[in-house]
Amino acid sequence: MAILIFILSLLLFVLTIGYHPDSATTINNLNITKISHEERYQHYLYFPRSERLLYREKAREMFQFGYDNYMKYAFPKDELDPIHCRGRGPDVERPENYNINDVLGEFSLTLIDSLDTLAVMGNVSEFQHAVKLVIDHVRFDRNSTIQVFEATIRVLGALLSAHLLIIDPLQPFGDLKISDYDNELLDLAHDLASRLLPAFERTPHGLPYPRVNLMTGMVDGSRNDTSTAGAGSLSLEFSILSRLVGDPVYERVARRAVNSLWAKRNNVTGLLGLRNYITYDA
Q1: What is the DSSP letter of 34?
Q2: Where do the DSSP E strands lie in the chain?
Q3: Distance (Å, rounded) from C-alpha 142 to C-alpha 174?
Q4: Which residues does UniProt assign to the signal peptide (predicted)?
Q5: Tens digit of each residue's pLDDT (9 = 90 or more) over 50-109
Q6: Dihedral, CA atoms, 138, 144, 147, 150, nearest 10 degrees?
Q7: pTM for the complete prediction?
């Protein structure tokens, strides 16, 4: 999912520079100081259909280049180290290296992260192939300490999205059905979420601890604070999982975390702080 967001953001940036439907004027020959705010707005608002289609294909090529090289040089590791052109997983020698270890957990992250993007890009055969690779290779019984937020938005969300794309006959991306599919992606999502639940335990106000170990649960010496995004943006994935598996616990803990954050708003501004303490009010 994160790859898709990055590509779409980059695409939007590229496409909106210097095109107007009634003019071939580009940003290089436009005298911005002599046009009104409305003219400037209109200048950046539109671009010709031919250009949109051109850069749509450029975005597709960019994604395919990254995905193909991950599969060639890095799979089944979590991501491609582009400098050394090899796979990379958690930094086991430096557990405090959160920049790497919060995201990478020895579960082929990039492959999972790419599932729904493959569907959106129209690569049906590779989507189906990638799903089978995930089913065959990905397991979450790993001695990896990961961030709950990152695991939720990138892994749990991707697994649920791909599962729904496979089973939903009304989805708009073509025939993504897999003949022998038996809800394996949903089972993986359920397993992952159950391993994230310890982060919500022993929290008097419902805010989750930021990290858990996928094999052992809570980590000794865990931080006593969490970010607003880390605690408050889990509802979509956890609620969908609850509805799909018929277990309300996931939606319940995510909703409790949101309610706890809502209660911590500033009395004057109504705003939330960047960091929120878990075991006491502050």
Answers
A1: G
A2: 79-81, 86-88, 145-147, 211-213, 225-227, 275-277
A3: 35
A4: 1-18
A5: 888 898 999 999 999 999 999 999 999 999 999 999 999 999 999 889 889 899 999 999
A6: -20
A7: 0.82
